């Protein structure tokens, strides 16, 4: 664990990258804080017990299939914001009080995913420090070992050989020192040329100050990286003058600088309402210097969390190590905006000498332009996979139900399916996100292949074995005469304010309905909508409609989406990964992505259905479908007798 004795001896090492201790961090500081910690745990436990008792008193026996009715609950307490991180409690999107729904065991059990990574129980949020080491992919994640709500943040740890099937390992880092006693928060791994792993993470101190700390494997020869040591000189970075003590977090993976032996990394912050990325210089990962200026800043975007910075090739189809730069290279800068809880990115050019990043298009700058995902998705992080020469993206998919429901089911949040990230050579403004190829190993037998001619206002049932675990690939050919003959349609269309898939237009919506019941009283349509301006130019939107996804109150019911470039000669295409309460939707090869969380009460188990539809008024659409049922992933604890 975090305080095991290190088998790595820096005194005898020939490395020039880091000078680290050969003894673990002293725990004396942690003992000095023990009274505070115990008091906090007791207070938290009392609150949780009280909350659970209230819930259980309001609920009838969960083993019974209760009739739908609801009661009003007081909105859940704020979590995280007072400590200087993003709000971790889901707030009802419509405002007002939350309604409690009498969820049954059957409903809650169905919500748990089958092939997305999630812990066995309790709360999870940001992905941390993903890396590949000696044949294993490692994922660390923000975890509360005590409850299904945010708090007591510890680093969970899991490993995989294929990014799909996972083994849980013991905790990697726990909050046991004065510099992280209030939380071991988000961090990133940097792998040095000699194989050393430098893990930098944000700690929340005993005085609620955000500082950056260093940890490293106790035994680098261990493929599982079971034991981690915290550097005895922590913290290695503290908030600089002019930066708030709660506005300094989430160090990135480091990249090599222009000087020999130099490493650079960036940390998110803000000055007033301007989001910024600070840059630090180091040669040994224990001593850091803040460089003049900032990597980039965007006024009006607020606090930047979980900043990510990496190169993409404009000519090749493989991913790049974080230190790559030169001809044929662009750099992606991404920030998670604390103000609106979305992940924004932009593509630009990085000057390593001036240490400045400049967006290619200022109108698509970070925080005001493109988002990685237009649904429920936050705190994403990439890493370079040297095994497959690709860049892989992880993202936190939070819940959009109530805390009361999460406590009843005993867990909250999942990680997205890992996605590869490439530069879109066609638009030159977007990245392309696509599920890792390993997901295809879960496909059952041959796909269902079907072509359907959909007249305006039609919907057709697609017979599949299990509508809750699917890989759906669909393309749509819109009637050419209708498309070209329409002069103007739905100028100013917007997914969020459109009224959803029930709102009919001349050229849309058309798409796929997932997790629906037979009567369509519950359904989640994912669809395209074509609008045409007064100049006759068509603009396509990709939307996901949750407004009728559940009959239960107190869950998010909104329409997500954005415009998506559909180039000449391209059909309208989508790929949907359906996994019980989560649907990840990819349009046009991953130019636009939407992640949905849904909580149906009827469209579960054998009652779930899949449909294809065309709700346009003026155009027929031909849908071509290829659908696979997906097996469950094997996600379990590593055998303890083998540790």
UniProtKB/TrEMBL annotation:
UniProt keyword terms in alphabetical order: Glycoprotein, Glycosidase, Hydrolase, Membrane, Transmembrane, Transmembrane helix, Vacuole
Skewed-composition ranges (Basic and acidic residues): 1-10
Which PROSITE patterns does the UniProt entry name for this protein? GLYCOSYL_HYDROL_F32
Name of one Pfam family that matches: Glyco_hydro_32C
Glycosyl hydrolase family 32 C-terminal domain residues are 463-629
Keyword Glycoprotein applies? yes
The family database entries (Gene3D superfamilies) matched by this protein are listed as:
Exo-inulinase, domain 1 (2.60.120.560), Glycosyl hydrolase domain, family 43 (2.115.10.20)
Using the record's annotation, list all stretches that form the Glycosyl hydrolase family 32 N-terminal domain.
116-435
- Report if keyword Transcription regulation is assigned: no
Q: Which GO terms describe its biological process?
A: carbohydrate metabolic process
| Residues annotated as domain Beta-fructofuranosidase N-terminal | 17-108
A single GO molecular function, which one?
beta-fructofuranosidase activity
Q: Where is this region: Disordered?
A: 1-31
According to its UniProt record, the EC number is 3.2.1.26
Q: Tell me, in one coarse class, where this protein mainly resides.
A: other
Q: Which residue windows are transmembrane per the record? A: 37-56
Q: Which domain of life is it from?
A: Eukaryota
What Gene Ontology cellular-component terms does the record carry?
vacuolar lumen
Name the protein family.
Belongs to the glycosyl hydrolase 32 family.
What is the protein's quaternary organization? May be present in two forms, a 70 kDa monomer and a heterodimer of the 30 kDa and 38 kDa subunits. The ratio of the levels of the two forms within cells appears to be regulated developmentally.
Protein name in UniProt: beta-fructofuranosidase
Which species does this protein come from? Nicotiana attenuata (Coyote tobacco)
Query: Which lineage ranks, top first, belong to the organism behind this chain?
Result: Eukaryota, Viridiplantae, Streptophyta, Embryophyta, Tracheophyta
């Amino acid at each position: 664990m975090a305080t095991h004795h290190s088998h790595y001896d820096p005194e005898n090492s020939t490395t020039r990258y880091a000078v680290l201790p050969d003894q673990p961090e002293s725990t004396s500081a942690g003992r000095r804080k023990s009274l505070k910690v115990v008091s906090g745990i007791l207070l938290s436990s009392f609150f949780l017990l009280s909350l659970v008792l209230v819930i259980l008193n309001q609920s009838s026996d969960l083993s019974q299939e209760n009739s739908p009715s609801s009661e009003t609950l007081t909105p859940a307490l704020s979590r995280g914001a007072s400590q200087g991180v993003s709000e971790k409690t889901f707030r009802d999107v419509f405002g007002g009080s939350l309604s409690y729904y009498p969820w049954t065991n059957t409903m809650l059990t169905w919500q748990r995913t089958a092939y997305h990574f999630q812990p066995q129980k309790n709360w999870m949020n940001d992905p941390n420090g993903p890396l590949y080491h000696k044949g294993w992919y490692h994922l660390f994640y923000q975890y509360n070992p005590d409850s299904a709500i945010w708090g007591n943040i510890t680093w969970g740890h899991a490993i995989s050989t294929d990014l799909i099937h996972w083994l849980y390992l013991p905790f990697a880092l726990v909050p046991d020192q004065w510099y992280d006693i209030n939380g071991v928060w988000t961090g990133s791994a940097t792998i040095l040329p000699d194989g050393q792993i430098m893990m930098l993470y944000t700690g929340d101190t005993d005085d609620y100050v955000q500082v950056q700390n260093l940890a490293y494997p106790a035994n680098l020869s261990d493929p599982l990286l079971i034991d981690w040591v915290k550097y005895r000189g922590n913290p290695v970075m503290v908030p600089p003058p002019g930066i708030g003590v709660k506005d300094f977090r989430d160090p990135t993976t480091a990249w090599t600088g222009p000087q020999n032996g130099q490493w650079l990394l960036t940390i998110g912050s803000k000055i007033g309402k301007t989001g910024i990325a600070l840059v630090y210089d180091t040669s040994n990962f224990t001593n850091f210097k803040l460089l003049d200026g900032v990597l980039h800043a965007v006024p009006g975007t607020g606090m930047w969390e979980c900043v990510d910075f990496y190169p993409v090739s404009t000519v090749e189809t493989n991913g790049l190590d974080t230190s790559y730069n030169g001809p044929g290279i662009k750099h992606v800068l991404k920030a998670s905006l604390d103000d609106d809880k979305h992940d924004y990115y932009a593509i630009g050019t990085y000057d390593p000498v001036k240490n400045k990043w400049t967006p290619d298009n200022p109108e698509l700058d970070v925080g005001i332009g493109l988002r990685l995902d237009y649904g429920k998705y936050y705190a994403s992080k990439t890493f370079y996979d040297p095994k497959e020469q690709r860049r892989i993206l992880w993202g936190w998919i939070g819940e959009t139900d109530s805390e009361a429901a999460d406590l009843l089911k005993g867990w909250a949040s999942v990680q997205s399916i890992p996605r590869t990230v490439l530069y879109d050579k066609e638009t030159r403004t977007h990245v392309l996100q696509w599920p890792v190829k390993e997901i295809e190993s879960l496909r059952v037998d041959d796909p269902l292949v079907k072509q359907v001619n959909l007249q305006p206002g039609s919907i057709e049932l697609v017979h599949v074995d299990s509508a809750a675990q699917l890989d759906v690939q669909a393309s749509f050919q819109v009637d050419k005469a209708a498309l070209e003959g329409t002069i103007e349609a739905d100028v100013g269309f917007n997914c969020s304010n459109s009224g959803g898939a029930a709102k009919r237009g001349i050229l849309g919506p058309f798409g796929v309905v997932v997790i629906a019941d037979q009567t369509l009283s519950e359904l989640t349509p994912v669809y395209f909508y074509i609008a045409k301006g007064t100049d006759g130019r068509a603009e396509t939107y990709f939307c996901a409609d949750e407004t009728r996804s559940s009959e239960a109150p107190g869950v998010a019911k909104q329409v997500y989406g954005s415009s998506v470039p559909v180039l000449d000669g391209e059909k309208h295409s989508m790929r949907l990964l359906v996994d019980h309460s989560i649907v990840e939707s990819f349009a046009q090869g991953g130019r636009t992505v939407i992640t949905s969380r849904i909580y149906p009460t009827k469209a579960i188990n054998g009652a779930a259905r899949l449909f294809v539809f065309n709700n346009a008024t003026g155009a027929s659409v031909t849908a071509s479908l290829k659908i696979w049922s997906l097996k469950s992933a094997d996600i379990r604890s590593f055998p303890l007798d083998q540790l």
